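BUG: 3D viewer hangs when loading the predicted structure for this chain

Environment: internal workstation, default settings.
Expected: structure renders.
Actual: progress bar stalls at 90%.

Input used:
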Amino acid sequence: MKKTSWLLRVVGTIQIILGGFYLLAPDTLLQFMGHSLPDADLHYPLAMLASRFIAYGLALLYISGNPQQHRLWMYVMVLIQIMDLGAGVFYTSLGTVGLALSGFPMFNAAWIIVLMLLWMPKKENT
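Structure tokens produced before the viewer hung:
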């Protein structure tokens, strides 16, 4: 269970940091990652996206204390990462985004999917 708790803390922290940048410094983050800068009106949906990153990250930190009772949160994170990976594959295959921009996020999605599924606490028999 220790490795699952560790994983939840790491992924939760990543989510909070990413959300913080999308909320407070979206242009800096996007420029650092190599993306084009969005029009100013896109800062609003990026801030809404940020709130979800931060809230989910806080939830992962909370459930890290007892992952067995909160498996659904882990399955939902797997689903999020599958969708992220799928979007990366889709937009990279279309040529909309180059592999230089999508490779690292897709790699992150892949390791999170694999470790969440491998280290998922077993269902208790009741």
